[in-house]
Amino acid sequence: MSISVAERPKVPVDIGNAFIQLATEWKSKSRYLSNTAQMALMRPYQRIIGMGPAVVPFILAELECEPNQWFWALEAITGENPVPAESAGNVREMARAWIEWGQSSGVYPQ
Amino acid sequence: MIGPDFPRLTATNHRITSLATTDYNCIAWATGDTTFWWQPGVHWPIPADASAVGIDSLVNALSAIEYELCNDGSIEPGFEKVALYGISSQLFYTHAARQLRNGKWTSKMGGAEDIEHDDPNDVSGGLYGNIVHFMRRVIKTESP
Residue B98: phi, psi to the nearest 5? Predict the structure, then answer.
């Protein structure tokens, strides 16, 4: 079954506002969860991943403000994993590694 | 916290014991760690694929750090116990709680606060599903 162009979900014009809305919903729904896979399969998180590379700067800004389990999404979107092995699981160090990756790759402002 | 997600929590059977933080999760807290967010494929005591997120994966991980399955959550001198939670219709482990020396239990509620609760079932019946296993290990050092 194919989906015509007209039937495809529209990409939000304002990525930033869409991200904030979805991130707020995800944080509320996942607040008491500990299993990252369960958190990442929630609909708002999947919709954020579906927004593609354009949403990465917004995720990095969110990470800088409030470290959280955004690493699954970043890895899924970018295909990268800049987190050193010794930092894996340390949320603040993982956030820092991703922010530095964003800055060095020009995705996120210095 | 009291509400449909935790239908057995009441104002009198639990107490918030920390500020909210995303630095560590319930699995870390159950083992006495407040530094890492434990997750298969990321930070886990044994090599594991990131997709190994079922209750068996959690049992295997805790077995690797000297826990063993046990029958119940009763106090046994010389042992510390954890309760593992899951939802039968889903693939995931959902939660772990740790028994305190006084017989009460402590849970890190995802990225929210730690709580002390009177009974391991106080956090079951909703978001976390039900207790699937109890495990125990010999007490060597005091957990936080």
Answer: -120, 135
User: For residues B46 and B60, what is the distance between their CA atoms, to the nearest angstrom?
Assistant: 8
pTM of the model: 0.90
Q: Is A32 exposed, middle or buried (0-12, 13-18, 19+ CB in 10 A)?
A: buried
Chain B residues touching residue A37 (CB < 8 angstroms):
39, 50-51, 53, 92
Nearest CA in chain B to A67: B22
Residue A10 has pLDDT above 70, yes or no: no
Burial of A50 (0-12, 13-18, 19+ CB in 10 A): middle
Please spell the DSSP secondary structure of chain B, one letter per residue: --BTTBTT--SSSEEE-S---SSS-HHHHHHT--S---BTTTB-SS---TT--SHHHHHHHHHHTT-EEES-S---TTEEEEEEEE-TTSS-EEEEEEE-TTS-EEEE-TTS-EEEESSGGGG-SBTTBEEEEEEEEE--S---
- A91 chain-B contacts, CB cut-off 8 A: 22-23, 37
Interface pTM, i.e. ipTM: 0.92
Contact A68 B22 (CB under 8 A): yes
Using DSSP's 3-state secondary structure scheme, residue A63 falls into helix
> In angstroms, rounded to a whole number, what is the distance separating the alpha carbons of residues A20 and B120?
36
Average pLDDT, chain B: 94
Q: How many beta-carbon contacts under 8 Å exist across A and B?
A: 70
Spatial separation of the C-alpha atoms in residues B97 and B28, rounded to whole Å = 10
B26 close to A (CB below 8 A): yes
Q: Could you report the per-residue pLDDT of B86-126, keeping only the tens digit for each?
A: 987 677 999 999 999 999 999 999 999 999 999 999 999 99
